[in-house]
Design goal:
Helix content: under 10%
Strand order of the largest sheet: 25-33-32-28-30
Number of strands: 60
Number of domains: 6
Radius of gyration: 57 Å
CATH class of the largest domain: Mainly Beta
CATH topology of the largest domain: Immunoglobulin-like
CATH architecture of the largest domain: Sandwich
Number of helices: 1
Length: 721
């Protein structure tokens, strides 16, 4: 048994639509204006001719004419000149179409004179019934159909011809095989056409299936009811498919992959527009017969939906039952534009339109071929260099579109709501001004050759700084520093330019400045932000510089030993009303003619501060050196506890020592006193009681300040009560 016979046997087992159903399969009605108010009416009706049980095509077919309000005008009797049985087309030659489906096409024509009429005319044909095996309509054997055309009001279009479809859809579809069908229409007037799925009209019923047979003499007037859909289906989703059936609104390309065996009614509308005004809608319905096609090889290259990939193109395919591939990329510049991989790449030498062909299973009985065109365009990469940021008080930007494009593309600039202008549509734009500070995205959209790309970059508008400052005091004194305190406001680091009014300047943030002469000085601050934005502040009031006293003094001696620590100061200041002396050892005096005695050796800085009645001050300094000397002396007896208060404390007399330690023991060697403070001594008390008359041993350890030599003294002291 041959392969084709086996496939046919499998199909006949799995596919049976008839069940003695009735005959309407599909149809449409359209018209042509012949001039002189004459119109040629064309009615196409398709019937199931597989069995003689179904009704034959009407002969004649009655077409009714109504005015815009639905009032009956006339009936047209269209005779049947003959009919044609359509070939059982299926979407792959490797599979033999089923034999239990037959579609007969009847084409009726007549000419009628229709004078201009406000609102135009409606032309309608009605019939019943549809095949009982249809899956997506409720009670299909009792559901008819209506085909209607509208001749528009002469005020909208004079001598208009309606659109008509170019091809009848394939009778059979293989389940699971993608459908790509050109369901486009032609309009003789060149009007704009728009395609969409729509709900087919219902029509007559089984009780009165045909006009002019005694039950009804004319078609029903518009408007018309639509078919009753089975739950889950409708005009936009008329049949089970994944992906769902879709029609391109601009080209009429019908796509989708049916996934359930059965008969399905589908409605497609093409709307005719002129100058944006709807003139007519040609609503065609037809019947798809979805069958099982086991192991059917189908070559399929997806329709191009990306146009902006440049010259390098990646090809994909969604073929069925393919085990080998043969690609031809249609590049006329080389014979090497072929590949046998599943999803190849090819780089074209230039832009253009190329025919890409895929053969699956080449050389085998069930090879299949699919061809499609690819529009190859250069890579569209718009761009622009954002202008440098500007300050808010002086911002004006120029933009130039750049990047990869041919320069022939509806440039569209979007500068945002804070810009004037907010949008522009030229390649170069000048004098764009922003009304506030911030970072603003600017978007350039370039559309060229059907490709659209965007590029976004940011423009910066910087805040103007506010210069401001204050003074620690608006009144100063000669040769005394004036502090300038910055209080400027900004959104970025600042640089500073100070002018002090006496020819001097500074770039510090909070500078000090000393004026050398008495006077009034006007000051100024100029601040510049990191973005180059500038502001200036002039202090309204001048800095008043008053005279200062002159500090001065003399000390004697300036170099002496700790044995002679008295230092005499003689005041030599002028213009002062008050004086303060800081001796450097923590002692302060307000008498600039005085004597001070130091208690420790060292180098001391003496500071004199004088003030005048205006509060201006001056300072003078001098240095004295107190050299260290070493002295140790200790008594051999003391008399604690007596009422005379004399000789109550036992301690040595020390000068010029450090690292000091003083310890006392009783005659049995018990330590009864210890200190490291040279100012402390023993008062004769141990454990809260005055010790008895006796001789006690002391031990004293220290280092001298002169050479840092160690010293140790051990001796006896007599306690006399």
């Amino acid at each position: 048994m041959s392969k084709k016979i086996i496939l046919l046997f499998i199909f006949l087992i799995s596919f049976s639509f008839k069940n003695f159903a009735y005959h309407i399969v599909g149809g449409e009605i359209y018209y042509d204006c012949l001039g002189g108010n004459n119109y040629r009416i064309t009615l196409k009706v398709y019937r199931d001719c597989y069995t003689t049980l179904g009704a034959a095509l009407d002969n004649p077919a009655i077409v009714s004419i109504f005015d815009a309000s639905g009032s009956f005008i006339n009936n047209l009797s269209l005779s049947l000149p003959g009919s044609t049985v359509l070939p059982p087309i299926i979407n792959n030659p490797c599979f033999t179409p089923p034999v239990d489906v037959c579609v007969e096409e009847g084409i009726y024509q007549t000419t009628v004179n229709l004078p201009p009429l406000p609102g135009g005319y409606y032309i309608a044909y009605q019939r019943c019934c549809r095949n009982s095996s249809i899956l997506n309509i409720v009670d299909p054997s009792n559901v008819g159909t209506t085909y209607m055309a509208h001749i528009p009001d002469p005020a909208l279009a004079v001598c208009n011809s309606s659109p008509r479809y170019n091809n009848f859809p394939p009778i059979f579809l293989c389940a699971g095989v993608p459908l790509v069908f050109d369901h486009s229409a032609t309009d003789p007037d060149g009007d704009s056409l728009y395609y969409e799925f729509c709900d087919p009209f219902s029509g007559l019923t089984a009780g009165c299936p045909q006009i002019g047979t005694g039950c009804q003499s004319t078609t029903d007037p518009p408007p018309y009811f639509t078919v009753p859909w089975t739950a889950g289906y409708g005009g936009a989703y008329p049949m089970s498919s994944s992906p769902a059936m879709a029609i391109d609104p601009n080209t009429g390309l019908l796509t989708g992959t049916p996934n359930m065996i059965g008969q399905w009614v589908v409605g497609v509308c093409v709307s005719e527009y002129r100058n944006g005004v709807l003139l007519d809608v040609n609503k065609r319905d037809f019947q798809f017969n979805v069958t099982n096609c086991p192991n059917l090889p189908v070559a399929s290259v997806p329709v191009q939906n990306t146009f902006c990939f440049g010259y390098e193109c990646s090809f994909t395919q969604n073929s069925l039952n393919a085990f080998s591939y043969q690609w031809n990329f249609g590049d006329p510049s080389t014979t090497g534009d072929v590949s046998n991989v599943m999803n190849p790449n090819w780089t074209y030498p230039d832009s253009g339109t190329y025919t890409v062909t895929l053969i699956i299973n080449p050389g085998s009985l069930c090879a299949d071929t699919s061809s499609t065109t690819f529009n190859i365009q250069h890579l569209l990469e718009p761009g622009f260099t954002p202008p440098p940021g500007e300050c808010i008080y002086n911002n004006s930007y120029d933009f130039t579109a750049g990047g990869e494009f041919q320069g022939t593309g509806t440039f569209t600039w979007d500068f945002g709501t804070h810009a004037t202008p907010a949008t522009a549509n030229t390649q170069n734009v000048s004098n764009v001004v922003f009304d506030t500070t911030g970072t603003f995205p600017v978007t350039l959209t370039v559309a060229e050759n059907g490709c659209t790309q965007q590029y976004t970059s940011n423009v910066h508008v910087y805040e103007k700084p506010v210069a401001d400052y204050g003074l620690a005091s608006p009144i100063s004194c000669v040769l005394q520093p004036v502090q300038f305190m910055d209080s400027s406001q900004t959104d970025s680091p600042l640089s500073y330019q100070w002018t002090f009014g006496d020819g001097a300047s500074s770039s510090e943030q909070d500078p000090f400045h000393t004026y050398a002469t008495v006077g009034s000085y006007l000051t100024q601050l100029i601040v510049t932000s990191a973005h180059g934005c500038v502001d200036t502040f002039n202090m309204p009031a001048p800095v008043a510089v008053l005279p200062s006293p002159v500090a001065g003094f003399q000390v004697t001696p300036t170099d002496t030993s700790i044995f002679y620590p008295d230092i005499t100061m003689t005041d030599l200041s002028t213009g002062a009303s008050g004086c303060l002396v800081i001796w450097g050892d923590g002692t302060i005096s307000n008498n600039c003619d005085s004597v001070h005695s130091y208690t420790k050796p060292g180098k001391y800085i003496i500071m004199q501060v004088v003030v005048n009645p205006s509060g201006c001050t001056d300072t003078a300094y001098s240095e004295v050196l107190i050299r260290p000397e070493f002295l140790f002396w200790i008594p051999n007896a003391f008399t604690p506890g007596r009422a005379d208060g004399l000789n109550d404390i036992f301690k040595p007399k020390l000068i010029g020592v450090h690292d000091y330690q003083f310890v006392i023991f009783d005659r049995w060697g018990e330590k009864i006193f210890e200190t490291q403070n040279s100012e402390d001594g023993w008062n004769g008390i141990y454990k809260g009681r005055l010790c008895t008359n006796d001789v006690y041993v002391y031990k004293i350890i220290f280092r001298d300040d002169v050479r840092n030599d160690p010293h140790q003294y051990i001796g006896r002291v007599t306690l006399v009560r």
